[in-house]
Amino acid sequence: MDSGALKDTSAGALRAADAGRTVRLAGWVARRRDHGGVVFLDLRDAGGIVQVVVNPEDRPELEDVVHGLRLEYCIAVAGVVRLRPDGTVNPDLPTGEVEVAVERLDVLSPSEPLPFQLDDRVDVDEVKRLQYRYLDLRRPRMAENLRARSRAVRAMRDVMEEQGFLEVETPTLIASTPEGARDMLVPSRLRPGHFYALPQSPQLFKQLLMIGGVERYYQVARCYRDEDLRADRQLEFTQLDFEGSFWGQQDVLDTLEEIAARVTVALRGAEPARPFPRLTWHEAMERYGTDKPDIRFGMQIVDLSPVFSTTGFRAFSAVLDGGGSVRGINAGPLGLARSGLDGLVSRAQELGAKGLVWMVVEDDGSLRSPIAKFLTDEERHGVATALDASAGDTLLIAGDDTPVVLEVLGRLRLDVGRPEGHDELAYLFVVDFPVFERNEDGDLVPLHHPFTAPRDVTEMRERPDEAISKAYDLVLNGSELGSGSVRIHDPAVQSEVFEILGISTEEAERRFGWFLEALRYGTPPHAGFAIGVDRMIAILRDQPNIREVIPFPKTQTGADPLTGSPGRVEEAQLAELGICLRPEVLAAWAEEEPDEGV
Amino acid sequence: MDSGALKDTSAGALRAADAGRTVRLAGWVARRRDHGGVVFLDLRDAGGIVQVVVNPEDRPELEDVVHGLRLEYCIAVAGVVRLRPDGTVNPDLPTGEVEVAVERLDVLSPSEPLPFQLDDRVDVDEVKRLQYRYLDLRRPRMAENLRARSRAVRAMRDVMEEQGFLEVETPTLIASTPEGARDMLVPSRLRPGHFYALPQSPQLFKQLLMIGGVERYYQVARCYRDEDLRADRQLEFTQLDFEGSFWGQQDVLDTLEEIAARVTVALRGAEPARPFPRLTWHEAMERYGTDKPDIRFGMQIVDLSPVFSTTGFRAFSAVLDGGGSVRGINAGPLGLARSGLDGLVSRAQELGAKGLVWMVVEDDGSLRSPIAKFLTDEERHGVATALDASAGDTLLIAGDDTPVVLEVLGRLRLDVGRPEGHDELAYLFVVDFPVFERNEDGDLVPLHHPFTAPRDVTEMRERPDEAISKAYDLVLNGSELGSGSVRIHDPAVQSEVFEILGISTEEAERRFGWFLEALRYGTPPHAGFAIGVDRMIAILRDQPNIREVIPFPKTQTGADPLTGSPGRVEEAQLAELGICLRPEVLAAWAEEEPDEGV
After folding, report:
1. Contact A3 B236 (CB under 8 A)
2. Smallest Cβ distance to A579: which of B181, B565, B579?
3. Chain B closest-CA separation from residue A444 CA (Å)
4. Do B213 and A251 touch (CB under 8 A)?
């Protein structure tokens, strides 16, 4: 059977100019109405919806088949396009001026009654949607998500190809990496007891490609991270990964801006404002309390410590004496009652603050606040001036260790200020990240990854806590879309980073020896980036989470309700891999019902 | 550091018209010659090679640095393009009319002495090449393989996009499939003791996309198969996967032909002859003894059974009485001595034949052969006529069970007739494959996969051994590039296939229940294909194996000599996954040296 036989026209393509044409259509019954014997069907295919009309008076042979039709039957029709009668034109539908008078109708596949309505306005439990993802994908919003994703990735590739980047596939069965604990493993059958890891990113391979002389590499790469699934993560995800030799930060940011602009045009039809604003990491932290600020709104954090430098208000003077700071935001005219304001205080405490001071600016310019009476006129005036306060504004002030103050005010700022949807787009580059941060144990760990170049090697060696790196992020509406850096291309610098991280020469040699060796063969200076494709498309499509733009995602516990993965595997198959199940797993199973997933 | 600062021109781009320009170049020292104090360097970058000239008389400050240069140092130079002096133009190099007189030269990274020469003419042990793949990729042939691969995949995508196919990513952490024994497994940490499988192909997910209304899907998909690595297989490989709804075989073959033509143009600069010839599976087996004939040469197998129907030559009459056949090929003017002809007989026996008869056509038209004296004039004449024999031709004849005869003559045909290189290209469609074959145990198994539509359901039910399917292959120069089929879209037919395969209703429900259910919701008729990208590019680039066109392949034992994967993993990490190593693995390790891969 050839397509011409079944279908020669897309349902969504028909227009008034097609009137008189005989067409063959195929798709699904999206809606069905009977009007005095005449049956109107909405026929939906991948290209859209058109109304088809079956009149059993003209076509008695179709009477039985048309009355047997149910929602989501897959059908093929042949008929003549005609203008709809006056008064029945549907302006909401691109095909709304026409309908197809059916001369032939065949059921290609019937459908069982649906487990849920295929209507964007109906709210369906997500597990059920995933279990019937093939039906969920027929819904207009999801179908458009798939199309948008394809367009977006195409736009990314177009920029890469225009700029002379080579698409290169790096392996996905690799050696376990330093961040190994989050590696997903694949047991080897040819070498039982040994394992491959799935890549968290193509980082080292793309650096090898630079050493290999590729100069410009890109890949839309599947990556894997065995995280405790947080709200909006998946075990597997996709990134646009690229890298260039003889390249520096400005080259990467220019390319990124072009990619982001083209993807935005592909999904929104309009260019974002360019050039994208740029903040240093320190500026971002100081003004927004986060390294991924949402700059669609202001409400910047202001340091009020100078205002309170000689304050008699004990809570603040104690903080300042202890080396902390007092900072505030002008949350604007929130109009909250006392209970709402108290809610903000509780929220601040949840976030780790000892407390939060609110002040509401009265019509006469005075400040209403539980602490107003403890402040001098000068202090009240200083706060109002520093926060550019107007009548009706609510000011929120916290005093604590500076990182706590920034974190709390940064989060409160989002709580009270962040727009709900993504109609407006605010791209932002954050640059000059620190090289290192301290983990919970107080050890130095790389803020990006250990292959990131420091701005200055001496600075890194002498003051690692303050050292700045050549790392940069792309942020959109307060979400990190991706990060990148200029890489270390000097093996001595790379060894020094390992040393500062407390990795002994022996350990570095054992874990990264092959990479350190590769660096010794004329490694070019190089830099690159990786964009999280799922997140970028979710934001541009204004979707609540990345699962909406992933065709077949897992649930937050890593399960696929459709196919039942992950499942059990026969003991014999595991034996070939040199592995077995642990006794506690087997003991737990012995108490359970048999698992269907064997 | 921005790129403009280091490099503004590609080395390979310089031409006579650039003479007088000041350029900044960066790349690697590919060659170095000293002529009376003047140093000539071949500077290589991703775009090609240009000669740069350093004259320490003009630039004394460069004397030390230029004499310190070694092969594969990464350098940046600035200088003026000038025409080469008469008599020194190099016509073999695109940049051969010019050279760059160096004014500045910086070493960006030195290189250690190389483990092997980066010269296409030097033969290097493959394990060593893989261990230093980043150097191997600098060799011109390998660099061109990478570029060609990028162009080829781009050409594939272009056709798909032009024809309205949506790029959709399907998951790679999936449920284990029916051919599960070849699945690579990924243990789940969130559900210890349970496993994902890596996909052998996106088959079921692309069918779900058709059910989901996508209509036209494609993906350049990473796939995995845990094979005992044969000569030219990899654990992970790439396929161009596509599927269409309301589509039949002709649509798929038309699209395939367009893809193959465009990829051929991208890699060879010329269109292949179109339309591609087409053979049924039965024709292919009868004429070439294989389902993937190399039709760059004729030498077709001819059934000589009629010639020998009343023969007195016992070996042949016994075969024919036993239901076998006698067939032959005209191997042309091989000009083999007796020992060479005996070698063909031994080879035939190796391949499973009881024997092989050779005949050489003498100048007078008579046949020289060990069996000539047992044959009648009529039989000798019949053989010569059937095989269109001319003086000097060697005829090879085998009598046995027909499958053995076809297999043996098909292989001998390749041995004696197959061209060495891939200069000539012969694409071919093979269609009308059987639905089933018998495995070694005599059980019916699907020849393609169990989702392939039969041509006729009644035929499949009543004569499964002869039943023809709607499956088709694309063959190039005797290699299968890929296969596809019209799929089953009727759940009743799908259940019937499982039943014929001896899979009980309960087992089918347990293993494929979710897929059988999906088929019940208005599944459109659909068909598709998957092309092996690695193999196709290897053939078009005339490479000896697919590892040459895979950036970072594994060895035939699945190892990566560069990174040392697969490696050992800490017990604690395995414990989190609910698995442990088997006692025999641990016992074997206890006797070994400590493994470096921990």
Report:
1. no
2. B579
3. 23
4. no
- Which one of B132, B191, B579 has the shortest CB-CB distance to A581? B579
Q: Do A222 and B169 touch (CB under 8 A)?
A: yes
For residue B396, give the 3-state DSSP assignment.
strand
Degrees (nearest 5) of the Cα angle B131, B136, B138? Answer: 145
Architecture of domain A143-275+428-549: 2-Layer Sandwich (3.30)
Within B548-595, strands assigned E span 579-581
Nearest to B522 among A1, A109, A249 (CB): A109
**Between B166, B250, B573, which is nearest A2 by CB?**
B250
Please give the interface size between A and B, counted as residue pairs whose CB atoms are below 8 Å apart: 388
Whole-number Å distance between alpha carbons of A221 and A209: 15
If you ran DSSP here, which 8-state letter would residue A132 be given? T
Query: What is the per-residue pLDDT across B483-505, written as a single tens digit (0 to 9) for each?
Result: 999 999 999 999 999 999 888 88
Helix, strand, coil shares, percent, chain A, to 5: 35, 25, 40
Cβ proximity of B214 and A551 under 8 Å? no
Task: Name the 3-class secondary structure at B572.
Answer: helix
Choose the closest CB to A186 out of B109, B186, B596.
B186
Which position has the token pair 């970058």? B45
What is the ipTM for the molecules in this complex? 0.95
The 10s digit of each residue's pLDDT in B540-577 is 999 999 999 999 999 989 999 999 999 999 888 999 99
Mean pLDDT over residues B234-261, rounded?
A: 97
**CA dist A525 → A204, A207, A522 (Å):** 14, 10, 10
* Ranges of CATH 3.30.1360.30 domains, chain B: 298-417
Give the architecture-level CATH label for domain B143-279+428-549: 2-Layer Sandwich (3.30)
CA distance B328 to chain A (A): 38
> How close B458 gets to chain A, by Cα (Å)?
18
**Contact assignment for A109 to B193 by CB distance below 8 Å:** no
How many Å apart are CA A488 and CA A524, to the nearest integer? 10
C-alpha atoms less than 13 angstroms from C-alpha of B164 in its C-beta half-sphere: 9
Q: Summarize pLDDT for B296-321 with one digit per residue, the tens.
A: 999 999 999 999 999 999 999 999 99
Which residue, among B134, B185, B549, B585, would best test binding to A if mutated, counting the most A CBs under 10 Å from its CB? B134
- Residue A251: closest C-alpha in chain B: B2
Examine the pLDDT at A4 and tell me if it is beyond 90: no
Task: Tell if the CB–CB gap between B582 and A579 is shorter than 8 Å.
Answer: yes
Q: Is residue A156 within a helix (H) or strand (E), and if so which, with residue range?
A: helix A140-162
Beta bridge partners of B22: B80
Domain A298-417 CATH (choose: 3.40.50.2300, 3.10.270.10, 3.30.1360.30, 3.40.50.150): 3.30.1360.30
| H-type alpha helices, B429-521 | 457-462, 491-500, 505-518
> Which chain A residues are Cβ-neighbours of B596 within 8 angstroms?
510
* B221, B224, B230, B232 alpha-carbon torsion, rounded to 10°: 20
* Cβ A409 vs Cβ A327: under 8 Å: yes
Q: How far is A192 from chain B (nearest CA, A)?
A: 7
Which of A196, A211, A472, A489 should one mutate to test binding to chain B, selecting the residue with the greatest count of B CBs within 10 A? Answer: A196
Give the whole-number percent of chain A exceeding pLDDT 90.
87
β-sheet with B471-476: strand ranges across: B166-167, B216-224, B236-245, B526-532, B479-486, B471-476, B427-431, B278-280
pLDDT computed for residue A37 by the predictor: 87
Which residue from B minimizes the CA distance to A137?
Answer: B212
Contact residues, chain B, for A110 at CB < 8 Å: 522
* Alpha-carbon span B321 to A392, nearest angstrom: 107
CATH class in words for B3-109:
mainly beta
